[in-house]
Amino acid sequence: MTPAVSDLDAGALHDTLADLARREGVHQWDLGAACSTDLSVQVDRGEPRQLKGAQRSAVTVRAWDGEGRVGITSCTDLSPDGLALALRGAREASAFGDREDPPQLSCRATEPLEPLERPLCGLSPIGRLLETLLDAERQLLDCHGAITTVPYNGLAERRSERVYVNSAGACRQQASSSASLYLYARAEEAGRRPRSAGAVRLAPGAADLDIQGCLEESAALTISHLNYAPIASGTYPCVFSPEAFLDLIGAFSNLFNARSVLDGVSLSSRDSIGQTLAVPFLTLSDDPRHPLHLAAAAFDGEGTPTGRLPLIEAGVLSHFLHSEATARQFGVAPTGHGSMGAKASVSPDWFVVEAAAGGGGDTGLRRDSASGVVWVDSLSALHAGVKASQGLFSLPFDGWLLQNGERRSIEAATVAGDIRTLLRSILALEGPPVLTPSGLCPHVWVEGLSITGEA
Amino acid sequence: MAICFADPLWRTRLEALLAAGTAAGADLVEVFLETGDRLSLLAEQERVTSVSPSFGSGAGIRVFRGRGSGTRDGFVSTNDLSDGGLRQALGQALGMLGLDLPGVGVSGTGGGAPFEGLPSLRDLGADRGDGLARCPGVAEVAERLLDGTAKLLQHGRHVQARRGSYSRDWQEVLVAASDGTFRRDLRLHQTLGLSLLAADGDHRSSVARRYGSSDDPDDLRRWDAEATAVDLAASSAAMLYAEVVEAGTYPVVLANRFGGVIFHEACGHLLETTQIERGTTPFADRLGQPIAHEALTAIDEGLSPGAFGSLSMDDEGLEPQRTVLIENGILRAFLSDRAGELRTGHRRTGSGRRQSHAFPAASRMRNTFIAAGPHSPDDLIASIDRGLYCKVMGGGSVGPTGQFNFSVEEGYLIENGTLGKPVKGATLIGDAETVMPRISMCANDLDLAAGFCGSVSGSIYVTVGQPHIKVDAITVGGR
């Protein structure tokens, strides 16, 4: 049975599972549940292309046996029958649980939560979403004669709720809403290759989306790539757009990930804290509760409250991201970055890149006066071109070659390097941090990266 | 209570649902029902560190109205398989097309395609009911994975981390549509991976192999852990001290098996009718015309026994076929699903696929490969003075302009017709129209490899494959 979003009740789930656990003889357990309602539309040259709706529910139960081993089971049924099935499955799976390093309940799961104020919007009628997207597509197609289609587009709204409860009395619940718009246009001129670019906007609800900004950015980017030329392979100074730099940081987040460190697959080791990782004017934080982070979560998958965590301070690695289990091994408190699992994974949430206190990052380098500089606007295929455990990347990108401040689109090229070298080769942070879906970041100048082109 | 879609009660419930949808004015109503029983295990070094079972069920209801390029559709998914939940989902899908369920407010325009009831259930899973019970249990899987990680330690050098992973996906699906489609299937997919991270000072290598099968409960039992460990250890040793490849444009030889990712990314996606609908394939009007070198014939099929991308029926209830995409360089066919046939006119090929009930089906690849040619692999390498041999490929992707990319996990320089030193960090980029005519030689050693493909209808099980092939020139990103 799928409850409506507003029907999810942490207290009731806690009481139901507590009762079931007593009957099953399970003394320690926890539960994470979520349900959501989604609406989305796509259009194609003035016609509706696809209209979608979804009601989803999911529950995950962990149960510990008398020897401290944990088992886990997930299912889509939030009814008492579904909970009973999940608990029984978890209890049975605990017989195969890890004896050496089993997760425990987070010691912070019962801490009071700081208020996290975010607007909560209801879902729009799907007809209104459709009209909005059709209008945005029409305006985008009207921007330039070469823009003939917007092959990837979508307007979506979601209302969701999540719960974490456990046998130690934790009872967390959070409701959220979100809306997203993406417009990726395709442009083609006679005798030339097709070009494509796009933009994304997020908001608590569809009515709050910056639709005009999204379509104008998509149009401007697409048009900017019409006048393209191949680039000669070589080593270039590069400037990364905020989104591209954050994509790269995210792909190499094993640098800050305590789980990866313990598993031996990180570029960092236990004693890396305090070592220089980047130029002295760079500071990087993970800030899940940043006021501009629309999808902020109040607690992680283990019920631990989220909060800002400095990762690199003035170039020095200062903290790792932790789950309950990794924090226990390091002798620190969980940081709110764990998932719920038989082996809890650890992941970052929302990065903030900024100049260290005292500055030093703004060296006067400006794109509007640069020459011989490659502007990397967006990276592709990070799943294939990043070797996280080796520190290497070789990635296709969209961008421009800057000459006297003028930009010319690069036809097809890759950028390659080593993340550790890159972090120590940052030349400047240009301008104020820019808001992106994955964090806040200025434009980042980097010395000497390998560019492969087709000239 | 366990769900079984072979229960005759489902026929009655679905007929009522489909009748309501067509009475409301829909031209076609399709219901996809799914239950799943999944298990995943992770072994690291000498320990099993994660055992994760999961169960799920849901429905995806899709409603079509109109024909030709103006066909509209609404899709709603839900985890609620009660009568009320399914009816609510249908009502929502109809509402997306401006139609109302009978008995709910003002009825729609009516006049939908007539629905004459469902025929007898065609049960394609009837002889596979014991498949799940025949699969290895947790203890047996754990033992096999730990055997694999132990052998990595035995054969590897400078070993830093070893992992073995397994997942089993048991799925019961039922597809019912108002055109009379009424089919049930039971599906089993198993996948096994082994990976090795080696480190010596600043030198690192990470290598992995993944295997996958369909409808073969004994697949894991036949796995040769020793051979996999020896293969991985050799790759790891070769790549540990490899230098980063020098960037440029080279002739390359791509090995068989997962080398087939080049065709999958460079061309396969562009032959899905989804891409015609979006206007993102350069091949939309090229049927019967040359689009590749005459040495190249490419096929997509869902029939090979046990292959990861094989199906008894697609996710729209159609039996899979063998589809010759390119024959001696000439474009012969596109991969089409129900919506693709309605909107583009290309007949369905049994290629309507989706990750789960939460996605509407789309035209997707199954087992896709380049056919074998007349040469030996050594012929291809011997034909190159200076180039790159891509022994193991990583993942890749293709963008809306047809630009593709994929990474090379294990590469070697080719110098004067022979293999030279190992190189790492290569990414190959290009576009299909340029590169397909440059696949000039195919060897005689066709082999397939399992993989996952992510696209509009989610992540699905596929096979890629090819013999060794030679590409006369391609851009190699590196340093």
Q: What percent of residues of chain A are in strands?
A: 35-45%
What's the number of extended β-strand segments of chain A? 19
Average pLDDT metric of chain A: 95
Supply the CATH architecture of the largest domain in chain A.
Answer: 2-Layer Sandwich
User: What would you give as the CATH superfamily of the largest domain in chain A?
Assistant: PmbA/TldD superfamily
Strand order of the largest sheet of chain A: 3-2-1-4-5-6
- Class of the largest domain in chain A, according to the CATH hierarchy? Alpha Beta
User: Runs of chain A with pLDDT <50, length 5+?
Assistant: none
Q: Kindly give the count of domains of chain B.
A: 3
Shape of chain A: globular
Q: Approximately how much beta-strand content do the residues of chain B carry?
A: 35-45%
How many individual domains of chain A? Answer: 3
Number of extended strands of chain B: 23
Considering residues with a beta carbon less than 8 A from a beta carbon on another chain, report the largest interface and each chain's count.
A-B, 74 and 77 residues
Gyration radius of chain A, rounded: 24 Å
SS summary, helix count of chain A: 9
The major sheet of chain A is characterized as: 6 strands, antiparallel
Report the helical percentage of chain A. 10-25%
Broad structural category of chain A: alpha+beta
**Which descriptor suits the 3D outline of chain B?**
globular
How would you explain this protein's 3D organization?
The complex is a heterodimer of chains A (455) and B (479). Chain A has three domains: 5-221, PmbA/TldD superfamily (PmbA/TldD fold, 2-Layer Sandwich); 230-248 and 361-452, no CATH class; 261-355, no CATH class. Helices cover 20% and strands 37% of the residues of chain A. Chain A contains nine helices and 19 strands. In chain A, the strands form two sheets. Chain A has a six-stranded antiparallel sheet. In chain A, helix 1 (10-24) packs across helix 2 (80-93) and helix 3 (126-142) runs parallel beside helix 4 (211-224). The radius of gyration of chain A is 24 Å and the shape is globular. The mean pLDDT of chain A is 95. By secondary structure, chain B is an alpha+beta fold. Chain B has three domains: 8-38 and 53-125, no CATH class; 127-173 and 186-241, Double Stranded RNA Binding Domain, CATH 3.30.160; 248-477, no CATH class. Chain B is built from eleven helices and 23 strands. Chain B has helices at 8-23, 83-96, 131-134, 138-155, 219-222, 225-240, 261-266, 273-278, 338-344, 377-382, 432-435, and strands at 28-44, 47-65, 72-78, 122-123, 159-177, 182-200, 203-214, 243-244, 248-254, 298-301, 322-327, 330-331, 352-353, 362-363, 367-370, 386-398, 403-415, 418-424, 426-431, 439-442, 447-455, 458-466, 469-477. In chain B, strands 1, 2, 3, 4, 5, 6 and 7 form a seven-stranded mixed sheet that branches. A six-stranded mixed sheet of chain B has the order 12-11-10-15-22-21. In chain B, strands 9-16-17-19-23 form a five-stranded mixed barrel. Chain B is globular. Chain B starts with 7 loop residues before the first helix and ends with a strand. The model of chain B is unreliable at 104-108 (pLDDT under 50). The chains are: A alpha+beta (455), B alpha+beta (479). The interface between A and B is large, with 74 and 77 residues. Strand 2 of chain A pairs parallel with strand 3 of chain B.
